[in-house]
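Lecture notes, part 5. Sequence design as translation. It can be helpful to think of inverse folding as translation between two languages: the language of shapes and the language of residues. The source text, in C-alpha cells, appears below.
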C-alpha cells in the first residue's frame, strides 16, 4: 500500500503538470518580487515626503515656542488664537495638519502633550503615549513609533529656544499605510489575474508543445505491441518526418527512435535470415546424412538376405564402406565449420603458399587427368602467416570444385601474386560458369546450383563454405566472378608484416 501510493503520485505529476507548475511558480515569484520592490520603493518615497512635512511642522512648532504667556515671548507677529484643550498651544499654529502629535518634554518627562483631531480640535494623549514621546527627546532624527491608541507615527525631537525644553512633533503614517495597503491589494489582484491567464495559456501552449511527444510515445507503444519473439517480423511503424525534425528536442527523440527502429528491423531481418539458414542447413544436413544411412541400411539388409552369395556380399560391404566414408567426410566438414564458427584459433606460422599450390595442383592432376591444370607462380615464394593444413584445404577445395563442376578438357589455372598489402590466390577455369542467381549464395552451406553444376563425385556441398570460413579466419576475403566460359575465385590474404629470410628465397629459387 505504501509503495503503490508514491508511484501513483509520480504518475499524477506528469511532465505537463510539472512544466505548468514550474511556470506558475516562476510567474508568482516574479509578481511577488515586483510587488515587494514596489512596496519598499513606494514606502521609502512616501516616508521621505512625510519626513519633509514633519520637518516643516517641527520648525513651525519650535518657532511658536515659548508661548506668549511664558516669559521670553517677544515676537508679537507670531500671535494666534489657540483652541482650548490639552497639548501645547503651537498645535493650533497656522499650517499644522490634522492628526499631528505634539509634546513638550523636559528632563525626560512630558510637560505638555496632545494631538489634533480630524475636526481641528485637541485631544489628550494616554500616559503610555506620553511616555513614548518622552523617550525620544534625545533623538534629533525622524523615527517611527507605534503610539498607544493612535497607530504608527513619524516623530522627531527638536530643541526649543529654551535649552531645557524639547519639542516633539509627530505626523500620522495612516495615509502611507493606506496607500501601501491599496497597492498591495492591487498587486494581489493583478497577480491572481496573471496566474489565471498564465494557467490557461500554459495549458494550451504545453499541450501543443507536447503533442509530438505523445505521438512519439504512441509509436513506441505500437512497436511494443508487435510480436517480436519469433517468426517473420516487420516494423512498418515509424515516427513521422514532422515529429522527427532534429532541430527540436522532441524531434531529436523521434529521430533517435526511428534510428533505433531501423537498427531493430535490420537485426530482426538478420535474425530471420539466420534462422532460415539454420533451418535450411539442418534440413540439408539431415538429407545428406539420411542418404548414406539409408544406403548402409539397405546394403546391410541385402547382405542379411544374400549371406551365401559371396560376390554380392562383398559388393554390398564395399558400398557400405563407401557410404560410411562419405558420411564421415560430411560429419568432419560439419565439425570443422562449427570450430571455425566458434572462433577457435588456428595455427599461426609462416606458410609458403607456392609450395602448397604445387602440391594441390599435383593432387588435382592425379584426381582429374581429363582436365588441363596450369600453375602460374611468381619468382619469389608467396609466404603468409597462418595454418598450413587449413590453407592447403582452401586450395584443395577450390581445385576440387573446378574439377567436379566442369567437363573434361577444361583448363584450370592456379595463380599466385603479391602486391604491397596482400597476397592474392586465384583459381580460374573456362567451364560453363556459375549462374548469376547462385553467385551470391555459392559460399553458403549446401548451396545447390543447376544441373550443369550439380553435386557429383562424392561432394558434400560444404567445400566452398569451408573455404570461406578458413579465409575469414585468416582475416582474408574471397570473391567469385563468373560468366559462361569463365569462372574466377579470388582469395586475398594479408601480408601480416612477415617477410621471408634470404635463405628461403634462394632455396625456393
Amino acid at each position: 500500500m505504501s509503495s503503490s501510493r508514491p508511484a501513483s503520485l509520480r504518475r499524477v505529476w506528469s511532465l505537463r503538470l510539472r512544466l505548468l507548475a514550474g511556470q506558475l511558480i516562476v510567474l508568482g515569484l516574479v509578481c511577488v518580487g515586483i510587488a515587494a520592490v514596489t512596496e519598499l520603493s513606494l514606502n521609502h518615497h512616501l516616508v521621505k515626503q512625510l519626513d519633509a512635512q514633519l520637518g516643516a511642522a517641527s520648525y513651525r512648532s519650535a518657532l511658536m515656542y515659548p508661548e506668549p504667556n511664558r516669559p521670553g515671548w517677544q515676537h508679537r507677529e507670531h500671535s494666534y488664537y489657540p483652541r482650548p484643550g490639552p497639548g501645547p498651544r503651537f498645535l493650533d499654529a497656522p499650517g499644522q495638519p490634522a492628526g499631528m502629535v505634539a509634546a513638550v518634554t523636559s528632563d525626560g518627562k512630558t510637560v505638555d502633550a496632545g494631538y489634533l483631531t480630524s475636526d481641528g480640535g485637541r485631544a489628550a494623549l494616554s500616559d503610555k503615549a506620553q511616555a513614548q514621546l518622552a523617550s525620544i527627546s534625545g533623538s534629533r532624527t525622524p523615527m517611527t513609533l507605534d503610539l498607544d491608541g493612535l497607530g504608527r507615527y513619524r516623530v522627531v525631537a527638536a530643541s526649543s529656544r529654551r535649552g531645557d525644553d524639547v519639542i516633539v512633533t509627530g505626523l500620522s503614517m495612516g495615509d502611507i499605510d493606506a496607500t501601501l495597503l491599496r497597492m498591495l491589494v492591487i498587486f494581489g489582484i493583478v497577480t491572481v489575474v496573471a496566474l489565471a491567464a498564465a494557467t490557461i495559456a500554459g495549458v494550451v501552449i504545453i499541450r501543443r508543445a507536447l503533442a509530438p511527444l505523445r505521438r512519439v510515445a504512441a509509436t513506441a507503444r505500437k512497436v511494443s505491441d508487435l510480436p517480436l519473439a519469433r517468426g517473420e517480423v516487420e516494423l512498418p511503424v515509424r515516427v513521422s518526418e514532422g515529429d522527427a525534425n532534429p532541430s527540436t528536442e522532441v524531434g531529436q527523440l523521434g529521430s533517435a527512435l526511428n534510428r533505433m527502429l531501423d537498427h531493430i528491423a535490420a537485426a530482426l531481418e538478420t535474425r530471420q535470415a539466420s534462422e532460415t539458414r539454420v533451418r535450411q542447413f539442418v534440413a540439408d544436413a539431415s538429407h545428406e546424412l539420411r542418404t548414406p544411412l539409408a544406403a548402409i541400411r539397405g546394403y546391410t539388409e541385402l547382405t542379411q538376405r544374400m549371406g551365401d552369395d559371396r560376390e554380392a556380399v562383398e559388393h554390398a560391404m564395399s558400398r557400405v564402406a563407401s557410404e560410411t566414408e562419405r558420411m564421415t567426410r560430411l560429419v568432419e566438414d560439419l565439425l570443422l565449420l562449427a570450430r571455425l564458427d566458434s572462433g577457435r584459433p588456428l595455427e599461426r606460422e609462416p606458410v609458403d603458399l607456392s609450395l602448397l599450390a604445387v602440391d594441390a595442383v599435383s593432387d588435382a592432376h592425379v584426381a582429374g587427368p581429363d582436365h588441363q591444370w596450369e600453375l602460374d607462380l611468381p619468382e619469389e615464394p608467396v609466404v603468409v602467416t597462418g595454418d598450413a593444413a587449413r590453407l592447403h584445404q582452401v586450395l584443395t577445395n577450390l581445385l576440387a570444385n573446378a574439377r567436379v563442376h566442369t567437363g573434361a578438357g577444361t583448363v584450370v589455372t592456379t595463380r599466385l601474386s603479391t602486391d604491397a598489402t596482400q597476397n592474392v590466390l586465384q583459381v580460374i577455369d573456362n567451364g560453363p560458369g556459375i549462374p548469376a542467381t547462385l553467385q551470391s549464395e555459392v559460399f553458403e552451406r549446401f548451396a545447390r546450383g543447376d544441373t550443369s553444376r550439380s553435386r557429383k563425385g562424392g561432394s558434400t556441398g560444404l567445400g566452398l563454405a569451408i573455404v570461406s570460413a578458413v579465409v575469414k579466419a585468416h582475416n582474408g576475403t574471397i570473391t567469385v566472378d563468373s560468366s559462361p566460359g569463365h569462372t574466377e575465385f579470388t582469395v586475398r590474404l594479408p601480408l601480416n608484416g612477415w617477410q621471408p629470410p634470404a635463405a628461403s628465397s634462394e632455396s625456393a629459387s
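The translated text above is only one of many valid answers, since several sequences can fold into similar shapes. The longest strand covers residues 151-159.
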